[in-house]
């Protein structure tokens, strides 16, 4: 069964460093999302991406964040200068079309020291 | 931002009995609702969904009920099995926008053998 994959599974970084989280959505899916979950809190929407551009973003997704689909398969989330409060699980999700179920990847656990 | 609420952080049920997980929402624009199951250090796994044009959807042991007037939905699991033990998240999306999901804070279900 097709699934969303994410790399790396864990990343530890120093505050101020740049990190890139990678996702490979399900191959025939067209809409892509990033969410995050800070430990003990709910899953929060960050950004959605369709047709090579951001379609919606939350207040969390400030200028330090960017997304890219550099080729036909990868979908990346970049944090330019990490802060301690960026420590969280980051989940990628994708759907084939509007009003369909979002399928999530296993997540990347980011720890900023 | 508490557009989706799960007021019970935990629930314990005996194996074989019914588990009922509840969710409330405030945004009247939400028209599509999903339940996800999540294990630690894994991504949310889709369980079942319901559109606002229906008031019930059933899939095997899982049934979701939607009461639009009360802005309330519930997930029934019957019979409950020890393998059902996980955190269950309710999520909702609106017809407008990019279908990003708003999650509740989750309910940890423990099924006691």
The quaternary organization reads as heterodimer
Task: Report the total helices of chain A.
Answer: 0
Low-confidence stretches of chain B: none
Average pLDDT score of chain A: 93
Q: Spell out the helices and strands of chain A N to C.
A: EEEEEEEEEEE
Largest sheet of chain B: 6 strands, mixed
Question: What percent of residues of chain B adopt helix (DSSP H or I)?
Answer: under 10%
Structural class of chain A: mainly beta
User: What value does the average pLDDT of chain B take?
Assistant: 93
Query: How many β-strand stretches of chain B?
Result: 11
Distance between the termini of chain B: 37 Å
Largest interface, counted by CB within 8 Å of the partner chain's CB: A-B, 29 and 24 residues
The helix count of chain B comes to 0
Strand content range of chain B: over 45%
What is the compact description of this entry?
The complex is a heterodimer of chains A (113) and B (113). Chain A has no helices and eleven strands.
For the structure shown, list the relevant keywords:
heterodimer; A: mainly beta; seven-stranded mixed beta sheet; four-stranded antiparallel beta sheet; 11 strands; 0% helix; B: 113 residues; six-stranded mixed beta sheet; five-stranded antiparallel beta sheet
Structural notes for this entry:
The complex is a heterodimer of chains A (113) and B (113). Helices cover 0% and strands 50% of the residues of chain A. Chain A is mainly beta. In chain A, strands 2, 4, 5, 6, 9, 10 and 11 form a 7-stranded mixed beta sheet that branches. In chain A, strand 7 (65-68) and strand 8 (75-79) form a beta hairpin. The model of chain A has no long low-confidence stretch (mean pLDDT 93). Chain B contains no helices and 11 strands. The interface between A and B is medium-sized, with 29 and 24 residues.
